[in-house]
Design a protein that fits this description.
The complex is a heterodimer.
Chain A: H1 4-19, H2 25-32, H3 38-59, H4 80-96, H5 102-109, H6 114-131
Chain B: H1 2-5, H2 10-26, H3 35-43, H4 61-80, H5 92-100, H6 113-116, H7 124-143, H8 148-157, H9 161-185
Classes of the chains: A mainly alpha, B mainly alpha.
Chain lengths: 137, 186
């Protein structure tokens, strides 16, 4: 079973997200009110180690478990899509308190109203796909 | 062992997220959750309406497994790895400000009843808030080419300027919502 490891990675992800309280609408709200270090600490410490790990991968020309070099693609250079898309995302994140990982974790906790947010996110993605050629990128 | 049942501090959770990103890179993939929304659209037949959805979704099967795992992880963590009552160490200032707006379970629930409770989602206003919030998350993530995992974690770890711009956008939008729009809603 080559694919079971992805299921396990997802389970670990869900547990971390729940136990860190990053799935909580309250934590997101508190973050945007600058009233707690908690969320900044999570993102900051993830980045601190993340930057080191990515540098290690690149400098050691590390291979993945299939023996192929790990290639991390650069993001396409642009400005408008990131600032405009990012701002709309941020508004939705602050309103619903859920980003595209935690929303599934919340389903597992039994907060079923999150299904409305997920349904909305699918519609939003669909609208982007349809309007894509008309948007600045 | 009892530390597991308490909320995990940031200096444990953050590095674990970085290790998870590293694990997915070792598995030959990359950490990014919002791409699943595009995959779901494609499975639902959205390719009939836009080129953007015409791709071989089976190449994203692994990420759908991560998604299913996330649901299971949420269930496991809340059912078996937590104390019975939720007790979050929120800033008393945040709690006080929210209680004034009627968010009576601030700090005592993962998500507020005011937004996610049965009463809230039985009203048009309640449904629209969650639906529009979700639409903005999906639309914005795809336009920006990623979300918190793809940009704020994966992209910034790789020192990508586009990801920094996206994260600045996430915060600009979040601050606008929290300080200027949310006060009109509650």
């Amino acid at each position: 079973m080559r694919s079971i490891k992805f299921l396990l990675a997802g389970i670990v992800f869900g547990i971390i997200m729940y136990k860190s309280e990053a799935v909580s609408w309250y934590r997101i709200h508190e973050m945007f009110r600058f009233e707690s270090f908690h969320m900044y600490g999570i993102i900051g410490s993830a980045l601190f180690l993340g930057v080191l790990l990515v540098q290690w991968i690149k400098r050691s020309k590390m291979k993945n478990i299939y023996g192929q070099p790990i290639a991390i693609e650069d993001k396409e250079k642009s400005f408008w899509r990131y600032i405009l898309g990012g701002s709309i995302f941020g508004m939705g994140w602050a309103l619903s308190g859920a980003c595209p990982g935690p929303m599934y974790v919340l389903v597992g906790t039994g907060a079923m109203a999150i299904m409305i947010v997920i349904f909305g996110a699918i519609i939003g993605t669909f609208l982007y796909g349809v309007l894509r050629t008309k948007l600045p990128h | 062992m009892s530390a597991i049942f308490q909320p995990w501090p940031w200096y444990v959770s953050g590095p674990l997220i970085a290790l998870l990103m590293f694990t997915l890179l070792k598995f030959g993939k990359s950490f990014g959750m919002s791409s699943n929304l595009r995959t779901i659209c494609t499975i639902g037949g959205a390719g009939k309406f836009a080129d953007f959805f015409r791709f071989d979704w089976k190449s994203q099967r692994w990420n759908l497994l991560v998604l299913i795992g996330a649901i299971l992880g949420g269930f496991i963590a809340s059912e078996f790895l937590s104390t019975e009552t939720v007790n979050m160490d929120l800033n008393p200032k945040t709690i006080a400000a929210l209680k004034e707006k009627g968010f009576s379970d601030a700090g005592k629930a993962i998500v507020p009843k005011q937004l996610f409770g049965l009463e809230a989602i039985s009203s048009l206003k309640g449904i629209l808030i969650l639906l529009i919030g979700g639409i903005m998350v999906g639309f914005g993530a795809r336009w920006a080419g990623g979300c918190t995992s793809g940009h704020a974690i994966s992209g910034l770890s790789n020192l990508q300027l586009p990801s920094l711009i996206a994260v600045i956008g996430f915060f600009a939008g979040g601050l606008l919502m929290t300080h200027f729009i949310f006060p009109f809603l509650f």
